[in-house]
Amino acid sequence: MTKIGFIGAGKMAQAIIKGLDKSKFSIQISGYDFSESEKVASELEVSAAKNHAELIATAEIIILAVKPYVIPEILAQYKSNKPIVSIAAGVTLANLTEMTSQTQAIVRVMPNINATIQKATTGIVRNNNVSDETFAIVKTIFTSIGSLHEIAEKDFGTFTALAGSSPAYIYMFIDAMSRAGVLHGMPKDASTKIVAETVMASAEMILASDDNPWTLVDNVSSPGGTTVAGVVSLEQNNFVATVIDAITATVDKNKSMMQS
Ligand SMILES: NC(=O)c1ccc[n+]([C@@H]2O[C@H](COP(=O)([O-])OP(=O)(O)OC[C@H]3O[C@@H](n4cnc5c(N)ncnc54)[C@H](OP(=O)(O)O)[C@@H]3O)[C@@H](O)[C@H]2O)c1
């Protein structure tokens, strides 16, 4: 059984722990406050370490699940040569190496909010010090909460836009469609449910199909029909360009935050 220690036991740590198979992993948490950690540990049926030092001594893999600004103080205070996994947005392998050592094994992971329903889309990258065996264990951890994509670190900013921020844009799209349903006389709750179910099934269609999305658009657009009228209207209103601009704005903002 692999011993995993979570430093920080907030939303994301709890979501990951909920998805983990407790027969494969022995899990300990250490949050900001011991009594709070004990409460969370008992809810999640894991154990709470008395402090970070105890957790680091026990764990085989340490997951840093605190906000990015907390990581420097933790890594400065607690030294260990055990593999660390960071889920902190915007903190690079180079940043983490600077805070530890050139020989430190580090995995950088970027889950998204869908971890809360065990359907995260997660990006992962390791440095050269991480063994294949350790990397396989870390991949098992994050596969338990959804899908996992091994990506180059240079693509983390784009991944963050496509998977981290995009739920907000998809919520906006669903709400806009559902509002249109209201405009045409349907109740908002029913409209939202109908659109959300359709978005989910359409995404499943894309994943199940070898066709690219535009072919699927063509497949539902019969000549002179209703769907093509809407497709043309979306295009006349720059739907594709608007979405691409939004993703580019997200990627650019991420770059500017990394530089400041
Ligand atoms: N939420 C997301 O959708 C998401 C997605 C991708 C990545 N992430 C990353 O995941 C990390 C955690 O985010 P989150 O959403 O889980 O935040 P969160 O709910 O605020 O959890 C962070 C936890 O760390 C605790 N903490 C603060 N200082 C600490 C310390 N010195 N030692 C131990 N624990 C400490 C906080 O306790 P207090 O509340 O008592 O301060 C809180 O419980 C962040 O780095 C974020 O960038 C989050």
TrEMBL record:
It is found in: Cytoplasm. It is an enzyme of class 1 (oxidoreductase). InterPro entries: 6-PGluconate_DH-like_C_sf, NAD(P)-bd_dom_sf, P5C_Rdtase_cat_N, P5CR-like_CS, P5CR_dimer, Pyrroline-COOH_reductase. Residues 3-90 form the Pyrroline-5-carboxylate reductase catalytic N-terminal domain. NADP(+) binds at residues 7-12, 65-68. It catalyses: L-proline + NAD(+) = (S)-1-pyrroline-5-carboxylate + NADH + 2 H(+); L-proline + NADP(+) = (S)-1-pyrroline-5-carboxylate + NADPH + 2 H(+). Belongs to the pyrroline-5-carboxylate reductase family. Keywords: Amino-acid biosynthesis, Cytoplasm, NADP, Oxidoreductase, Proline biosynthesis. It comes from Pseudolactococcus hodotermopsidis. Its main location: cytoplasm. One of its GO terms (molecular function) is pyrroline-5-carboxylate reductase activity. One of its GO terms (cellular component) is cytoplasm. It comes from the Bacteria. GO terms for biological process: L-proline biosynthetic process. Catalyzes the reduction of 1-pyrroline-5-carboxylate (PCA) to L-proline. Pfam families: F420_oxidored, P5CR_dimer. Pathway: Amino-acid biosynthesis; L-proline biosynthesis; L-proline from L-glutamate 5-semialdehyde: step 1/1. This is Pyrroline-5-carboxylate reductase. Residues 153-257 form the Pyrroline-5-carboxylate reductase dimerisation domain. Gene3D superfamilies: NAD(P)-binding Rossmann-like Domain (3.40.50.720), ProC C-terminal domain-like (1.10.3730.10). Its EC number is 1.5.1.2. Coiled coil: none annotated.
